[in-house]
Amino acid sequence: MASAVQAFAPYRVILASRLRAQAAYRGSFVADLFGSLCVAATEFAELWALFHNIDSLGGLDWHAMLMVFGIGEFAFSVADLLVGHLDTIPTYIRAGTLEAFYLRPLSLLGQLITSEIGLRRLTRMGVAVAAATYGFAANDIDWGPDVVAMLLLTLVMGVALFSGVFVWAAGAQFFLVNGSEFTNAITYGGSYASKQPSSIFPNPLRVFFTFVVPVAFVAYLPTLWILGLPGPEFLPSWLAWFSPVAVAVVWSVAWLLWRVGTRHYQGGGG
After folding, report:
1. What is the C-alpha to C-alpha distance for residues 86 and 239, in angstroms, rounded to an integer?
2. Which member of 98, 100, 171, 216 has the lowest number of beta carbons within 10 Å of its beta carbon?
């Protein structure tokens, strides 16, 4: 345990410096918080406006959709807070400044993860928690050890899954030229898909968001299981218990791509 704490000490120092830097410019920090709040509020307003005209979406009513939205938004916001800034790696590669990270006797991925921490995402998390809490309270849920276990599993695995997607997107930048927009379609597109019922997608997209980028495991399938609802064709609700398998697959691909990418990298422009 002591050796593990000692090994993390340099990263703790880096994170502390980033936190102090954000606290030093309070006006800018408050503006960032407000901007992040506006993004989350806009996404919530989109859902509210949709249900102002319909009674259900993909077989889920308003209160069930609040659960899907809240859980999906929370998982993505926490992952974005922790590792979302990895999407800046194309800037390091183009500028040739990634070499500075290689010179330090620390893990490249660990340095990049601790190089920034976006506390502005806290307001998005707040919106997510509020929506999910209201959704859970409004639905008739038979709370028991299995439901509590499912909820805890869902929250942890959702954050882990999106974190793996961010690492995958960062690893892909070693092979792409200005490929951030392509990978953003997966990361942020996956975030949007995670807050929707998979049943509304055509079969190709349903397969993609379940077995390729498995964001259906983040919120939709767990919500179905907790509410005791059947899933759509080929997506039974009991699949929610297999979210650790989906996370393991995502991280395996992400880690492999990252390892190959960092070994493939030969310097700025190479």
Report:
1. 30
2. 100
